[in-house]
Amino acid sequence: MSGGVPSRTNDPDRTSPTSRVRRVLRGPRPEAVPVLVGRACALVGLVDIAAGVFPRFRYSRMHALAEVLPGALGPFAAALSLSAGVLLLLLAHGLKRGKRRAWRAAVALLPAGAVAQFSYRHSIVGVLVSLALLLPLLRHRDQFAALPDPRSRWRALANFVLMSAGSLALGLVIVSVHTERMVGDPSLADRLTHVVYGLFGFEGPVDYQGNTSWTVAFSLGALGLLTAVTTIYLAFRPEHPAAQLTVEDEEKLRALLARHGGRDSLGHFALRRDKAVVFSPSGKAAVTYRVVSGVMLASGDPIGDVEAWPGAIERFMDEARAHSWTPAVMGCSETGGEVWTRETGLDALELGDEAVVDVKDFSLAGRAMRNVRQMVKRIERAGYETRVRRVRDLGETELERIRRAAEDWRGTDTERGFSMALGRIGDPADGDCLIATAHKADDQPGPYGDLKAILHFVPWGKDGASLDLMRRDRSADPGMNELLIVAALQAAPKFGIERVSLNFAMFRSALARGEKIGAGPVLRAWRGLLVFLSRWFQIESLYKFNAKFQPRWEPRFVVYRASADLPRIGFAAMQAEGFVNLALPLPRFLRRRRAATRQPCAHRTHGAPSERNVRAA
């Protein structure tokens, strides 16, 4: 159009050779430097490892490049190449995330490699290669300001296990590649023995001709030394414990929930004590979160006054940038998703729907409720009775019995739940929580007396409740969860409760639309995949269980920065929810001891086949 602004593609200043040269000389954008430098360090590390391991590689054309890379120094070329390569690989991830400690280590390692190149090999090219990586590090040092992640001494043990496994595998390759110099034909057991001995600095049963024995010995010794040094460093470096909800933070959050808790059914779950919190400058809003595998994971909507949400969100994003964490929000409402995307430029994706039952509209009458009505009547005829009470109205003895039952009736070794789970039962500060229990007198009472099933609800403002946990005795009759949900809904009016939030159903709309007449092939294929995945995650059965109570469905969203982050966010969410556990397994007596020192975590499950999945995705 005449008079308009010329397009970027037709701008002669941008397409001219001079402008292209100028852009090349100017270098990459500062924010892209950490990723580029991290990838360069990883590439150099892999080349150094290959130069130290494979003998043919050292005599190939690539040897000319490997000889001048940091680490390939004189008679100790193999060992030092391995050491430098492993260290650079270990630093690469931290550099890509802009970590200050990784930057310091790389800045120290690269000049040391350059000095060694010049001192031992008189290699100007080697110095230039080191400087080529060092210069962008120094020029863009402000891009490497990320603070450390939460960490504990367990990181040292994990490093020892992983480095030992990697050293054994790499050591076996080192021992095996020198076949033309190997004396005899040692077995695999002999080679493994030689690797283990070599990692500790001793000679093993495998022998070689010429100086190859020294090459293998130095290489294995370097791997063993690296394993020991990195483990010792991680064991004795200062800890950065994961942030916890302090007493003062919890008091502030409870005050916000008292005024604004009716907005979001997930608001009370912000009081989990394994979450951290950031407040808006005015203190009228807050965002709670947990850091998992480098993902800063918030859940639900911000707490507090909607007008103050932007201030809390800005603080959240500042914290994510300061530590180079990936920001994400799980399970926010439509309003929350709109505010998050507007204030941060992030994207939102519908994750599923929350089942909400309006108490005044709930009834067992009618054809739609026939299955639930028949199941409840059958269980009541079998001699079961229900009780619905506030936590504050239970005696300490009964409350302790309920805690122990919830712990022992858990269907998994690890506790599940994060975004839609409180993490405790019967805390004195949670007196407004609701507990529904099922009882049946037996001829031979069990360890929990006549207790057969438990439902735990947290407050949702002053007139609502949100389901937190469902547990039952496996020997009890099927249908305990249906019985207790109906009992809780029928008892709700006397507690002033007008709405009850049940489970969260992932991808509910896709399941519902995909089974209708006229659904397209893409939607049917997507539904088929979800049904297939339900064999492990019970996506479909959870939706169908919720649908029994004729709820209204409220959509929930995941907020993310880029599509490439979604797999990482999903994995972090599965870790937080307890579906993926990377910690070392604990014996049962240790799990019981931990449960005794920390009140057992609660999570929401459904009454479908396994009755143990959390409400959250």
Write structural notes for this entry.
The protein is α+β, with helices and mostly antiparallel strands and 617 residues long. The chain has 22 helices and twelve strands. Strands 1, 2, 3, 4, 5, 6, 7, 8, 9, 10, 11 and 12 form a twelve-stranded mixed β-sheet that branches. The longest helix has 25 residues.
Entry keywords:
single chain, 617 residues, alpha+beta, 22 helices, 12 strands
List the helices and strands and how they pair.
Elements lengths: L11 H4 L1 H10 L6 H21 L1 H4 L3 H5 L10 H20 L3 H22 L2 H16 L14 H23 L11 H12 L12 H25 L10 H14 L15 E4 L5 E8 L2 E5 L3 E2 L4 H15 L2 E7 L1 H11 L2 E12 L11 H12 L3 E6 L5 H13 L25 E6 L11 E9 L4 E9 L7 H12 L7 E8 L1 H7 L6 H17 L1 H9 L4 E9 L5 H12 L10 H10 L20
Parallel strand pairs: 3-5, 10-11
Antiparallel strand pairs: 1-2, 2-3, 2-4, 5-12, 6-11, 6-12, 7-8, 8-9, 9-10
Helix pairs in contact: 3-6, 6-7, 6-11, 7-8, 9-10, 9-11, 13-14, 15-17, 18-19
Distance between the termini: 50 Å
Largest β-sheet summary: 12 strands, mixed
Strand content: 5-15%
Number of strands: 12
Estimated helix fraction: 40-55%
Short description:
The protein is α+β, with helices and mostly antiparallel strands.
